[in-house]
Amino acid sequence: MLDKAKALSSELVRLRRDIHRHPELKFQEVRTARLVADTLQEIGGITIRTGVGKTGVVGDMGTGHGPTIAIRADMDALPILEQTGTEYASVNDGVMHACGHDAHTAMLLGVAHLLKNSFADDGLQGNVRFLFQPAEEDTDEEGVSGAPRMIEDGAMDGVDAVIALHVDAGLECGKLFSRSGPSSAAVDTFKAWLTASGGHGAYPHKTTDPIWMLGPVLMALHGIVARRIDPMEPAVVSLGEVHTGTTSNVIPHEVYLHGTLRSFDPAVREQLIVEVERALSIVRPLGGDFRLEIGRGYPAGWNDAAVNSWLHATTKDLLDSDAVMDKPSGLGAEDFAYMCQKAPGAMIMIGAAPPDGIKRAHHTNIFDIDEQVLPIGAAILAETARRFLAGEVSLPG
Fold first, then answer.
1. Which of 9, 143, 146, 185 has the fewest CB atoms inside 10 Å of its own CB, making it the most exposed?
2. Which of 350, 288, 268 shows the shortest CA–CA distance to 314?
3. What would the DSSP string read from start to end of 330-353?
């Protein structure tokens, strides 16, 4: 399978660079979706649905009976002005593929090429569903991202297992890591307003001052993980924005706070919200008050042990036993988690560090990848799906 994928390398690079050159933001992936649908049509033997989850594409290939495995790739870009200087740099000012979704989409199109041949040559029984998802990075006006929108439109109906990968530009090309269990964090946001009377800066004793109250609130917020959460449970409380005041001699009446909450365990997720409210309530004995808004985001992702083991075994067989690294998951968030709630699933992280030695971190304006990862990722996904449909791997029970 890896040799067959490498034979597609030039086509995968062409697709990836085309998508990279024309990035599109959340639920605006019209050109990308058209490219995907046209490519699937050229491959042939695929039933194609467009407009799934607003701008997503679903392709079904198979015999119409037997088990179904879904493979997901995200398509959206980020609002970043690219500064890579490559020949395939974004032509859309202020929009950039800075997280590798262009690579994911190209790889999944490669998987469709590879599996069409497998159905013809190996007599596979079952079905593969290709999920080209919009809006992984952000949500619509109702706060809903691409994965649940696709699920609402039936993208996961009848699916027995689901797999995906994500490039990691900080990891050597061809190396891979994932663990069974938590694979990505639940993410919630909070907005808070500390309110007080404010007043003249020359007469602080005649006012209630929310900036003064901010000090103990910050201490309490940053103490949540250190002192209120079980130290054996991963959790994060981070502030990203603090805004207040307009001039030097006016004590403002309000301080605005905006932060993120991350966790794996559902009980810890709920506790973090309770603890944030408790931390903010410190202002009340000091003469102030507060308002709090919680934005519920993606749930924690979960790698099914069996599905994760398939991906590991495939990688070791296609590459070598040292290709799979034992590395813990971080507290980044991924809306692939919604799909893993609908069927046993797993996502692997695959190394794609550029060969120039320059650190090109995700979500930065110089992000790029080593394109040698494209056939490797396509082969791992295609071979894992082939093994499932051939009955070489299975789910417990």
1. 143
2. 350
3. -S---THHHHHTTS-EEEEEEE--
pTM beyond 0.85, yes or no: yes
For residues 218 and 222, give the distance between their C-alpha atoms in angstroms, rounded to a whole number: 6
CB-based contact 46:53 (threshold 8 Å): no
Q: What is the identity of the amino acid at 222?
A: H
Whole-angstrom Cα distance, residue 392 to residue 397?
15
> What domains lie within the chain, and their CATH numbers?
2-184+300-389 (3.40.630.10), 186-296 (3.30.70.360)
- Any idea what DSSP says for residue 329? -
**Catalytic residue numbers?**
298, 371
pLDDT digits (tens, 9 = 90+) for 151-208: 999 999 999 999 999 999 999 998 999 999 999 999 999 999 999 999 999 999 999 9
Cα(321)–Cα(174) distance, rounded to whole angstroms? 12
3-state helix, strand, coil in the chain (%, to 5): 35, 25, 40
